[in-house]
Design brief:
The chain has 188 residues and is an alpha/beta fold. The chain has 6 helices and 10 strands, in the order E-E-H-E-H-H-H-E-E-H-E-H-E-E-E-E. It is globular.
Length: 188
């Protein structure tokens, strides 16, 4: 059975972006980027809502293969090789190695978890809130940057109530702290 992990960069005050147009968090440097590359390579699939998917489509660009740094080219390859499931009622098509789901996310994710092994990465706060309410998220990973955004899109949606237990903490490059939690009612 797959393990569903909601994983996002956050500010100290709990925001994943200042707005849809302004992420406002520091860009991962080589070492932190490599951490995310390694996680992407471990993933059996990536789940995303429309906004997160559209943001990440940047990595589908052929220029990502020839430009920038080796760690970015490596991430682009890993992104393209990992199957993606996109949840949207407004999109009509998705890019390569992606499948569109415009129906019930809870049913689709329950089915995916039961028939898939390994790590499934979830990105996007709105989709995460729906799946958290359904009890489908196995782990929350907050990559906390030492910055305060003062508002924006929160990692945890307003009104979402969860009781979590700590799984661990790790210091990463760029003074980022990875904080891992699981729902308190799940075994470690």
């Amino acid at each position: 059975m797959a393990r569903l992990v909601y994983s996002m960069l956050t500010s100290l005050d709990g925001y994943i972006a200042r707005s849809d147009e302004d992420i406002a968090l520091p860009v991962p440097g080589t070492e932190l980027h490599q951490h995310f590359n390694d996680m992407m390579r471990q993933a059996s699939a990536v789940l995303a809502g429309r906004r997160m998917y559209e943001t990440m489509r940047f990595w589908d660009s052929p220029e990502r293969e020839t430009g920038a740094t080796e760690v970015e080219r490596d991430f682009a390859r890993a992104w393209r090789e990992t199957p993606k499931i996109v949840f949207s009622t407004t999109l009509r098509q998705v890019g390569p190695n992606a499948r569109l789901v415009n129906g019930d996310a809870e049913t689709a994710v329950s089915s995916l978890k039961s028939r898939t092994d390994g790590l499934v990465i979830l990105g996007g706060a709105d989709l995460a809130a729906d799946l958290a309410r359904a009890g489908l998220i196995d782990e929350y990973r907050l990559y906390m940057h030492p910055v305060v955004l003062g508002g924006g899109k929160p990692y945890f949606q307003s009104g979402l109530s969860l009781t979590l237990k700590p799984l661990g903490r790790e210091s990463l490059s760029q003074d980022v702290t990875l904080m891992r939690y699981a729902p308190a009612d799940q075994a470690a």
